[in-house]
TrEMBL record:
Record protein name field: LON peptidase substrate-binding domain-containing protein
UniProt xrefs under SUPFAM superfamilies: PUA domain-like
Pfam families with a match to the protein in the record: LON_substr_bdg
Domain Lon N-terminal as annotated: residue spans: 3-223
Domain of life: Bacteria
Gene3D superfamilies, sorted: 1.20.58.1480, LON domain-like (2.30.130.40)
InterPro entries registered for this protein in UniProt: Lon_prtase_N, Lon_prtase_N_sf, PUA-like_sf
Length: 245
């Protein structure tokens, strides 16, 4: 297994390989991370690991809060994540490659990154200005019948997307969608409107076929629900919202 020591960026969301991740970076711990990444030469990837938060806050409290109005806000790289931060995170995340990092006049950063490879957290170091994780890459295995399952998921996803978008919205055609089963599995996982635990289960599926089987079940269930609901606006299939940090 390939291991790497990478800056760690926890989010209240799941990043999948191939998904575009825009970030609005304003907390000092993450500003420090971006300044460090900018020291890497443009010819090299500026990589960091993204994990979904299991228990904690994406943005650390900056003022006293309930129930103790006199309590001082937490500071430091692990603020909001407890004394053993790795326990606050899901153990499977995704490497993000920062294509652009732009510093604003106020010292905050506008970042555009893309998910690349799944990783498993082995340990988390909170001794520096930002969290750093020892990570292990997780290879993507196809599993049995991935190709056949992919075709079924694409059919189910088209039906789901039409219900989600409404009859007046444009739906995806066959030419819009990939052929590779693993790419299909990540695209559908990212695009489907699911809660974080459901998306996390899809990210950490042991192989592509297992992920596709679960997606087929989820899509059929969600499509059945949508038949009885008013039309909703279509989601962007390649890019999520900008996450404040």
């Amino acid at each position: 297994m390939t291991t790497a020591r990478l800056p760690l960026f926890p989010l209240n969301a799941v990043l999948f390989p191939g998904l575009v991740l825009p970030l609005n970076v304003f907390e000092e711990r993450y500003r420090a991370m971006m300044r460090e990444l900018l020291t890497i030469d443009d010819s090299e990837p500026r990589r960091f690991a993204v994990v979904a938060i299991r228990d904690g806050r994406e943005v650390a409290p900056t003022a006293p809060g309930m129930p103790d109005q006199t309590a001082l806000p937490e500071k430091g790289p692990a603020a909001g994540f407890g004394s053993d931060p790795i326990q606050a995170f899901h153990r499977v995340g995704c490497i993000a490659d920062a294509a652009s990092i732009r510093e604003r006049a106020d010292g905050s950063f506008e970042v555009m990154a893309t998910g690349t490879t799944r990783v498993r957290l082995l340990s988390v170091d909170a001794s520096g200005p930002f969290l750093v994780a020892e990570t292990e890459e997780i290879p993507e295995e196809q599993g049995e019948e991935a190709g056949t399952l992919s075709e079924g998921v694409l059919r189910a996803f088209r039906s789901y997307q039409k219900r989600l978008a409404g009859a007046r919205e444009r739906s995806l055609t066959a030419s819009d969608l990939p052929d590779d089963p693993s790419v299909v599995s990540y695209l559908v996982a990212a695009a489907a409107v699911l809660d974080t635990p459901s998306k996390q289960r899809l990210l950490q599926a042991p192989d592509t076929a297992t992920r596709l089987r679960e997606e087929l079940t989820l899509l059929r269930a969600e499509t059945a629900v949508l038949r009885h609901l008013p039309s909703l606006p279509v989601v962007d299939l390649t890019q999520g919202p900008t996450y404040p940090n």
